[in-house]
Write a structure and sequence with these properties.
Helix content: 10-25%
Distance between the termini: 42 Å
Oligomer: single chain
Structural class: alpha/beta
Strand content: 15-25%
Strand order of the largest sheet: 1-15-13-5-7-11-12-4-14
Order of helices and strands: HEEEEEHEHEHEEEHEHEEEE
Radius of gyration: 19 Å
């Protein structure tokens, strides 16, 4: 690559030849957060407090303090988040090589399936079917599971029932396929966490965490606007906050694509 490559990139961004798509939900005190069984300590929600707003506490400036769990809103899961990835020396937000935060994305559209079945599971067979139409999932790329779940109301987003949450996610064989046979960089979803709502009952439990992080790979949760990306061809930018020994962090996920926006699915808003 030479300087002309970067100059051309800047020009195409400025002219709109390359579209920038925001895949991030806003953070506020109503941002849904994952709930754990009551015997475990819960992750706190987002909270913001004003420090000053052009007043006696700061006449010429406005700023706030904020607090939240690392895995709040649109967030990055580092390998060190899970017990299977705890021993990687490059597995926390401050030690992951920064070049890994820019990578191509494969977008798997299962929005119709998720609309029909909130417990829908992405399988390796579905991925192979997608590959037959779009090309092979390459090593070092992201796989993003489009469910249009981000279009749900806050009340329906977590979708809790007496037997736990009911949200779509990957099956065990899907995670085995992506980690062992495709060697992807990471897996992203529109739901509150990278695993299906009922994944506590799988073997192994929570395969998106157990298998993905055990293979030193990443997760992205609570994404949005995946319907604006092509199946292949987009590049996503995913740097988490550089928290020392951090297990993850909220982040703003940006996609770059030259494709025109895909038509809205009329069945999903």
């Amino acid at each position: 690559m030479n300087n002309a490559t970067l100059t051309n990139l800047a020009t195409e961004l400025a002219t709109g030849a390359i579209r920038v798509v925001d895949l991030t939900v806003p953070l506020n005190e109503n941002t849904p957060i994952i709930g754990l069984p009551e015997e475990f300590k819960q992750s706190p929600g987002f909270k913001m407090e004003k420090i000053s707003y052009f007043d006696a506490d700061g006449p010429a400036w406005y700023w706030n303090s904020f607090s939240c769990g690392e895995h709040t809103g649109t967030h990055f899961d580092a390998p060190g988040h899970w017990i299977s990835g705890r021993d990687y020396t490059d597995g926390c937000t401050d030690t992951i090589p920064p070049e890994k935060f820019i990578a191509p994305a494969n977008v798997i559209d299962v929005s119709k399936e998720a609309a029909a079945d909130p417990d829908y599971l992405l399988t390796s067979d579905k991925l192979k079917e997608w590959e037959s139409e779009n090309g092979k999932i390459e090593p070092g790329t992201w796989v993003l599971m489009r469910t249009d779940w981000s279009k749900r109301t806050p009340e329906d987003f977590l979708n809790y029932a007496e037997d736990g949450p009911h949200t779509p996610g990957p099956s065990v064989d899907c995670m085995e396929f992506l980690t062992k046979e495709r060697d992807i960089l990471g897996f992203g979803v529109e739901t509150v966490g990278t695993d299906a709502g009922q994944a506590f009952a799988f073997d192994p439990a929570f395969p998106a965490h157990q298998l993905m992080h055990g293979s030193n790979k990443f997760g992205l949760a609570s994404l949005t606007n995946l319907d604006q990306l092509p199946p292949k061809g987009a590049i996503i930018v995913t740097p988490p906050l550089k928290i020392e020994h951090g297990s993850g962090s909220p982040l703003r996920v940006i996609a770059l694509t030259t494709k025109k926006p895909l038509p809205m699915n009329k069945n999903h808003g």
